[in-house]
Amino acid sequence: MYLSPQDYLFHRSPMLLIEHIETIAPESVTCSVALNSAQLAPFLEPQGLPAYFGIELMAQTVGIWSGYQDKCAGRAAAQGGLILSVRAFEAQQPYISGPQDVPLIITMQKLMQDRNYASFEGSISQNEHTVATGRLSLCQLDAELEHQLGFSA
Asked: Which of 10, 15, 24, 100 could form a disulfide linkage to 36, CB 3.0–4.6 angstroms apart?
């Protein structure tokens, strides 16, 4: 059993988009959120959720993986992260739409990790149909990196 997404992420409402954690493994993570959830309600348009939100759903899913790994290792949770690059993000439609109560399943697989930097690829699906795929490179912030980037005093 996992804690809630906010226990692993820096994000808070309204920018916390993940509703549930399904599984976390050493090299992968799966989370979910329904289109009719409170998390996505502020961002829905009449056509559905703009597909570009898929990038943030993927990034937050990776953030949950990272936060979980930190907690398991007894490390302090990171105070955020940065999306360094998005490669090969492809959405099947400009909007993610479908049954409002059927969750979007976000699955990410780690490709590589070197200290604070990692690359993951994954997909978003609904009803076992892929709605988006992509590869993200991310950086987990720590106090030293925040200082180097000028984010802290």
From this structure: 100
